[in-house]
Design goal:
single chain; alpha+beta; 2 helices
């Protein structure tokens, strides 16, 4: 599911961006690293690495994501990548943290606190 403004957003197709959180509101900004992507689940033909179970799971996940109503604040549904896994989040793309805030490059403890992760 890509929202209307995802085409030009960092984290959209062909654009790198990183997530930045706490103390600022969660946002994504242009970067050489890629830790924030607008949600877009790719489909592939059945193969030895993408078997029928994964084809079916992909279709089910895409349907679930497609049924999520758009964010009332206009944010993009995005995957945030961390060393511990992925988080689905509403994110404002195109931000500029000025170099401050927590990112995926920080220690896990800081990332856990900034994203309110339950591990």
């Amino acid at each position: 599911m890509e929202t209307e403004n995802s085409e030009n957003a960092c984290g959209g197709r062909g654009r790198n961006c990183r997530w930045v959180g706490h103390p600022r509101p969660l946002s994504c900004e242009a970067s050489s690293t890629n830790t924030c992507n607008v949600v877009n689940i790719l489909e592939a033909e059945e193969s030895d690495f993408h078997d029928s179970n994964l084809v079916a799971a992909t279709a089910a996940i895409k349907e679930i994501l497609a049924n999520i109503p758009p964010d009332a604040n206009g944010r993009n549904l995005s995957f945030l990548h961390t060393s511990m896994g992925q988080l689905l989040a509403w994110v404002e793309h195109g931000g500029d943290s000025g170099g401050s805030g927590v990112t995926a490059d920080d220690e896990d403890e800081r990332v856990i606190a900034a994203l309110n992760l339950k591990l």
